[in-house]
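note to self — DONT lose this again. spent like an hour looking for the file last time. sequence + predicted structure for the chain T wanted, 540 res
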Amino acid sequence: MVKIVVTELGGSLVGQEIECCKGQSICDALRDAGVHIEVPCGGAGTCGKCKVKVLNVELLPDVITSERINLMDEEIRAGVRLACMTTVVDGLMVRVDHSLNGALHGAVVETWVAEQGSSLSPAVDPGDIQGRAVGMAIDIGTTTIAAFFYDLKSGEQVDVIGEMNEQRVYGSDVMSRIRTASEQVGYLKIMQQTVIEQLNRMVKRFCERHGLDVNCIADMVVTGNTVILHLFAGLDVASLGQAPYAPVSVFGECCSAATLGLNMRDNAEVYIMPCVSGFFGGDAVAAMMAVGFCEMLGNVQSETVYMADIGTNGEIGLIHQGKAYVCSTAAGPAFEGAHIQFGMGSVPGAISKVWMQENAMLCETIEDQPVIGICGSGLIDAAAVAVQLSIIDEAGSIEEDSVYAAETDHGEAIMLTDKVYITGKDIREIQLAKAAISAGTTVLLETAGITAEQVDVVQIAGGFGSKINARNAAVIGMWPERFGELAQAAGNAAGAGAVMCLLDVDRRRDAERLAKAAETVELTMNQSFEGAFVEALMFG
């Protein structure tokens, strides 16, 4: 065993020693000690988002080549290292400073849901419960968790609590979490406990706010993508990481809250929303419910509606002449700040809007705070402006003679401010993300036998989808120009669908019917997808 001293700015371990195993990375040592640090790549050393400051850096060997790619020379001289790539040595002094990484701490969680107008017929009879009877609808996202609390006797919303998903320390995307859960002994259980314990703390927080006991929580509906729901239920995720990506369960069923370890009313059950497939989960099914797919299913006279829930996985649904088509495309975590040099979540100081004014590029930050980085909506705006001002060419290369281009420690870059810029590598990440959404959309439309001009309604769901400029997304080629004009923000549609199933038990059958009826378009097996993806990599 070796000992290191941890200084976590604003944290509880200031100046404390922690014991770690010889050969452990700083990242693993911190995680074992309960110190949360962002590791979007799951510890592969590729994202550069787990920076820490080593105060006695002379104890460490020289920085390895793969680490230098993600560190500036001035950072290396100041003792900054990647926690996942640095092995602990006895007596090491480590400072955890979240500002080094553009971390997601304090990021805004999407908790707005549209009014659903569901009838009130919950799974439990609130008349049998003395005192307050509260139900929870929970959207467990890859990055965030939103919990909606409803009075089951009146159907009124009582509270909403949003937090960052503490599982993100095991990777920013589902593939990173699959690797961690399936390759590291015991981590499936640890990752399940992480989310269960977080939900229990959210319940406790709610009860303390309202002077209630945990026994008031009488029912719960949980939604999330297929991997997240497997981790929540403690099911093996290994099969979801390799073809044919078959889930152990597609859910659409109840399980015991006590068995899961959730602090609720005695004998309470948890309904887990149904999934369509390994990569089209309960969250996307819930989102389709919220924008009216169930009512249109089987109705050949219904409108043609396109729905996209854009996150690390881009889940796309389309209903045309009463038939539903779905696909999931690996957009990656770029729009959530991962793999972007100055990328971050929606935190104060993140550039959230970029626009042109008299051929000048202007920026706005969240809460008008000093610039510290850029979030997903800002990335899309910046890319659109770069296209419009010819700062980047059709292939995404930065024009060296542009007044906005400059040579940096990370190569040629587009300067947004004197401190924050977009690198050529960042542009590649944006291209991959937008091309995945675009190609998935193209294939889905082709499968339904229609063009973009035949789509009547476009709903963009999720926190990120609610904040982006849909017209700018069309400028960079994420979807057709018509979609940019039609796009409506659906808010947390996954949460809204879960609320519907909480307040009206019959809506659960609707969700199951929709999940079974939807035709899954497998993009990995689709001949059109690769060509559409390559074409969509281009700008303009």
